[in-house]
Amino acid sequence: MKTPGAFYKPLAIGAPAPFREPPVSLERMIHFVPPHMEKMRAKIPDLIHKVDVILGNLEDAIPADAKTDARAGFIQMAKDNDFGETGLWTRVNCLNSPWFLDDLLEIVPAVGDKLDVIMLPKVEGVWDIHYLDQLLAQLEARAGLSRPIMIHAILETAEGVKNVEQIAAASPRMHGMSLGPADLAASRGMKTTRVGGGHPDYAVLSDADGTGARTAYQQDLWHYTVGKMVDACLSCGLKPFYGPFGDFSDPEACESQFRNAFLMGCLGAWSLHPTQIEIAKKVFSPDPAEVAFAAKILEAMPDGTGAVMIDGKMQDDATWKQAKVIVDLAKLVAS
Ligand code: GLV
Ligand code: MG
């Protein structure tokens, strides 16, 4: 049985280490499926064994004249399949669209018992979460559902980024957040047409070397927002995710963007193309060499206190906690 809810227990002040539980379920890739396409729905039984989460997308990328079919297709795919431990999510249309209300009114009574998470796009503030929270409470009560459907917010407007801490704390239904770099770029007036990833012109120029040559070092356009989102999420016990990477022809850049997010605290990313499933699986599973080193730290400091040297590197209570994050994730991947 999948357990939705607070995935990280917050630190109790003064509590001895270990203080934080690992995430209860693996969600390394949220795999997007367009549910109005029958040939894509036919792939679900196979996908269930390959991905951590399957998401039926109803919002952007689904044409306006296919919205009703996408909603019906999602209900169909939810009914037709046993998802087992694989998460079942949907991305509904945004709150002020003509489709959102029917998305909720039709999906929750029909397949709310199988639905783990609703991804809500273009969240701007607590009011958006409160509205969905109450609507879900009514629909769950009417449908006799005992397990709450969780909410995952996409951080993809300047207003949303401004309010990210309040959004994270808005409801016990909050599961986590994803960065939405395409909408966010538009909302902020950033000058890029890419879906995530870097930009060659966003760079820092080195000083001239002896020959007068200078090198441009490309920077991560999303560093600030990912950092802000990770802090907001972790301080409330939620899970942070990098979102989409749109250039399917550049798996190397996708891997690099996902890895930056992983190192900064994200637990997964969206896979929009089958090739991105393996990239996310590789990146969001801890590196075996790192796990082996982390295990040495835990072994050398059984009660998590004090200071020891391992391979010339100082370890103490803080690095013990860092090591525990990595070892716990490795255990989860292995389970
Ligand atoms: C995702 O929804 C994005 O806008 O990047
Ligand atoms: Mg978007």
From TrEMBL:
Keywords: Lyase, Magnesium, Metal-binding
Biological process according to GO: oxaloacetate metabolic process
Annotated positions binding Mg(2+): 156, 183
HpcH/HpaI aldolase/citrate lyase domain ranges (all copies): 29-194
Binding site for substrate: 91, 156
SUPFAM superfamilies in UniProt: Phosphoenolpyruvate/pyruvate domain
InterPro entries on file: Aldolase/citrate-lyase_domain, Citrate_lyase_beta/mcl1/mcl2, Pyrv/PenolPyrv_kinase-like_dom, Pyrv_kinase-like_dom_sf
MF (Gene Ontology): lyase activity; magnesium ion binding
Cofactor: Mg(2+)
Assigned protein family: Belongs to the HpcH/HpaI aldolase family.
Protein name: Malyl-CoA/(S)-citramalyl-CoA lyase
Organism: Roseibium marinum
